[in-house]
Design a protein that fits this description.
The protein is α/β, with parallel strands linked by helices and 219 residues long. It is built from 8 helices and 11 strands. It starts with a strand and ends with a strand. InterPro entries: CheY-like_superfamily, OmpR/PhoB-type_DNA-bd, Sig_transdc_resp-reg_receiver, WalR-like, WH-like_DNA-bd_sf.
Length: 219
Amino acid sequence: MKILLLEDDIQFQESVCEYLQMLGYDVDCASDGQKACDLIASNFYHLFILDIKVPKISGHEVIKYIKNLNLNTPIMITTSLVDIDDMAIGYELGCNEYLKKPFELAELKFRVAELMRKYYSVDDKNVIKLNGGFEFNTSKRVLQKDGALIDLSAKETDLVECLVSHLNMYVSMDELREFVWGDKEIDGADIRMHVLKIRQKTSNEFITSKRRVGYKING
């Protein structure tokens, strides 16, 4: 599970980042709002943890940017601001959680785990529950149903992992070529064949498709 952390206090940023990584999360860090927006534009995240009073672009403006991209990714605000108006603005813009500084790292752990559970049905932080009763373990990179392992090839596993990392979002053919095949020469028929084989091993509804849009797996 991937998290973007926006925090301009470098020492505190490093502390929070290291703690989240110790918990098993993949974390990108930004020290100003512009850097955060740049990262959001080029990466997929499962959670945004945003400070408000940061250089260049405020955390509130970053939330507006996220919403303009039509992302449904959960957002947690971490700030020392105590004015109720600032909290109200954050919630009105679409944040899902508020954590007032200073906070204990253990509290952050539980807040993050709860958001992951709520939005991605994640009980074990490495296990993502998918439609049809399937589960994907992001640490072991295995797909299971009712405890039974689904026998996927290496490339089929890469493809499922890519779609799971973009859960509930369509991934285009070009994006699949980049993420799964590294922009190697592979035509659409080959990608469709890989999808067909995965469906044969799971169900016809496991991977959904939309013409000229791409493929997705729903949680």
